[in-house]
Write a structure and sequence with these properties.
This protein has helices at 2-8, 28-37, 57-65, 76-88, and strands at 12-18, 42-49, 70-73, 98-104, 107-108, 111-117, 123-128, 134-136, 141-149, 158-165, 171-177, 180-188, 191-192, 195-200, 206-211, 217-221, 224-232, 241-249, 254-261, 264-272, 275-276, 279-285, 291-296, 306-310, 313-321, 330-338, 343-350, 353-360, 368-374, 379-385, 395-399, 402-410, 418-425, 430-436. The chain is mainly beta. Strands 4, 5, 8 and 11 form a four-stranded mixed beta sheet that branches. Strands 7-6-9-10 form a four-stranded antiparallel beta sheet, with no helix packed on it. Helix 2 (28-37) packs parallel to helix 3 (57-65).
């Protein structure tokens, strides 16, 4: 590349994308500087792809020697972004005449620097510091600088107004971010536990947040006073969150806060006359009546009994059988106590039998509506249509044991015909009634 420019005697902008130190005997910085000293007119920008730490030292030196910028690209998306920035800075662009250096707690940091005409949103130039001084070109005049810290920080940007760029002078601005860290750890019964974290300023606005994933988690913020709320995940009950109020952090300070959640295990088994029963389970706080959590037991041994991790307390449990009809399809357990670090178990058996209800004529199945009423309470407990398919006629109903009044209303060609009869359903047995219209 340098030989080509030497022979052509033309100006050029060079963008070098590299995933490591190239040849030049490992001394790319000296090679670029020697070419500039020779008078070859070029500007070199270097993009380091996926590089870290000391791998970038020579490349940053070479970019500076080539009157260009060094850019970091972590992945394909960021590579596209920095390529766009690099291609905007050509050899014809004036050299930078205003430097900015960003530090935090006395250490250099990577920051984005934007320069605007004072009092406007007209951006004149922007550069990243990459933990070093960056140079912007600002024509003589007055500018507002906005400097935003990068590297996963929630420290607020700093704005500096009415910075002056003077002709034939190189200006400079050091920007100091003094951040502090809130370090959060949540545990449950003595073991690290996953929680979400929300951090609020004193005016109630949300300033940061995240998730601990069962580890200590750091949140870097401007010095000040904050409220920190931790919310335990995969834990139900009345005490799944805790708020630390008026947490004070100073510049460069690390404030550690820890909260211990308590829990027990609640295991609910739902059975029936024919084995495991699918049921909706709802858990209520006894003191307040509020719903705490819930779920379905299904009919698999992997989920029935249904297990809940729940804070210690007293709870009411409602089980509602999904596929059983009748006045006894709901069962409630009151004032069940869950203790810390203990397992509490409860079980209920729903009794049921099967009723097969069908409709036919002398030579075919008949579509009819079926209405089933519990005789003693006059409660309408179930209903459906028989249609004219052998897969649904007779129609199967799973019912609590008891006496029921069944009404069939024929549809189609037999519309208007009705029959009402009584059936007795016994636990674990099948009762069949086929009506002939």
């Amino acid at each position: 590349m340098i030989n080509t420019l030497r022979e052509s005697e033309e100006s050029a902008t060079v963008i070098l994308v590299t995933d490591g130190i190239e040849s030049c005997d490992g001394n790319i910085c000296e090679v670029v500087q020697a070419a500039k000293n020779e008078g070859i007119d070029f500007k070199m920008h270097i993009i380091g792809f996926g590089l870290q730490g000391e791998e970038t030292t020579q490349l940053q030196c070479a970019a500076k020697a080539g009157d260009g910028q060094y850019y970091d690209a972590e992945n394909a998306e960021s590579l596209t972004s920095v390529l766009n920035q690099a291609t905007e800075a050509t050899v014809d662009e004036p050299d930078g005449n205003f430097s900015v250096y960003a530090i935090k707690n006395s250490e250099p940091i990577d920051a984005m620097v934007e320069a605007f005409e004072t009092g406007t949103d007209i951006r004149v130039d922007s550069k990243r510091t990459y933990r070093d001084s960056t140079y912007l070109y600002l024509p003589p005049g007055s500018y507002d600088l906005k400097v935003t810290p990068l590297e996963n920080s929630d420290v607020n940007p700093i704005s500096i107004t009415a910075v002056q760029s003077v002709e034939d002078q190189v200006g400079h601005q050091t920007v100091s971010f003094d951040g502090g860290i809130i370090r959060v750890l949540t545990t449950k019964n003595g073991e690290s536990w996953d929680s979400s974290v929300r951090i609020y300023a004193q005016d109630g606005s949300s300033v940061s947040g995240g998730r601990t994933y069962g580890q200590t988690d750091d949140y870097e913020l401007n010095p000040g006073v904050y409220d920190v709320e931790v919310i335990a995940l995969a834990l139900d009950g009345a005490e799944t969150s805790h708020r630390f109020e008026d947490v004070l952090i100073g510049a460069g300070e690390v404030v550690e806060i820890e909260h211990e959640f308590k829990s027990g295990t609640l295991s609910i088994g739902v059975n029936g006359s024919e084995g495991l029963v699918d049921a909706m389970i709802t858990i209520y706080d006894t003191a307040t009546g509020s719903t705490i959590t819930g779920g379905r037991s299904y009919t698999s041994a992997s989920s029935n009994p249904k297990t809940f991790i729940i804070t210690p307390g007293t709870y009411d449990i409602k089980m509602e059988a999904v596929a059983i009809s009748g006045v006894e399809r709901i069962y409630t357990i009151e004032r069940l106590v869950v203790n810390e670090n203990e397992e509490t178990s409860a079980e209920h058996i729903f009794r049921s039998g099967i009723a097969l209800i069908g409709a036919k004529s002398s030579d075919e199945l008949i579509d009819a509506t079926v209405k089933i009423v519990e005789t003693n309470t006059k409660t309408n407990v179930d209903g459906a249509r028989t249609y004219t398919s052998a897969s649904s006629n007779p129609r199967q109903f799973v019912l609590n044991p008891g006496t029921y009044e069944v009404t069939l209303n024929a549809l189609g060609p037999h519309a208007g015909k009705t029959e009402t009869f009584s059936i007795v359903v016994e636990e674990g047995k099948t009762t069949e009634k086929i009506t002939t219209f």
